[in-house]
Design a protein that fits this description.
Layout lengths: L4 E8 L13 H9 L11 E9 L7 H14 L6 E4 L1 H9 L6 H12 L2 E4 L5
The structure holds iron/sulfur cluster.
């Protein structure tokens, strides 16, 4: 694909992952394969997933979870340039009183890790 490689990390809602979102994050892998939903932005890239993890559980500890994945990714020469916060997290915020403030955490993650943060993943 035209623009080269893009490596991403994906973070999910720990409460929803593997329950309402199909075991094994199948919806995310389908979305990546079809470049659907928030993955559409990578349609001109050869997309690689460095890792998938969850928020750590309520009230959400995304900063240390992302820091840990960054450290591990660098250790294994698999650093990523973008972070997707799953559609599951977005839905949890919108419908299930998830305490994560999406815009605030997006700003903090972008500032600390110098990575683009995308709110959402698959559209299913
Ligand atoms: S903090 Fe939000 S995203 Fe994390 S488990 Fe709780 S509801 Fe899900």
């Amino acid at each position: 694909m035209g623009n080269g490689k893009k490596r991403i990390a994906i973070f999910a809602c720990k409460n929803i992952k593997g329950i309402s979102c199909v075991g094994g994050c199948l919806k995310c892998f389908k979305g990546i394969s079809e470049r659907a939903g928030e993955y559409e932005r990578w349609k001109d890239y050869d997309l690689e997933v460095a890792g998938m993890d969850d928020c750590g559980g309520c009230p959400g500890v995304l900063m240390p979870k992302v820091a840990l994945m960054k450290d591990m990714a660098r250790l294994y020469d698999r650093d990523f340039e973008a972070i997707h916060l799953g559609t599951c997290i977005v839905k949890a915020v919108q419908t299930a009183k998830c305490p994560i403030d999406l815009e605030t955490i997006k700003g903090k993650l972008e500032a600390k890790f110098n990575a683009e943060v995308v709110l959402g993943t698959h559209p299913y």
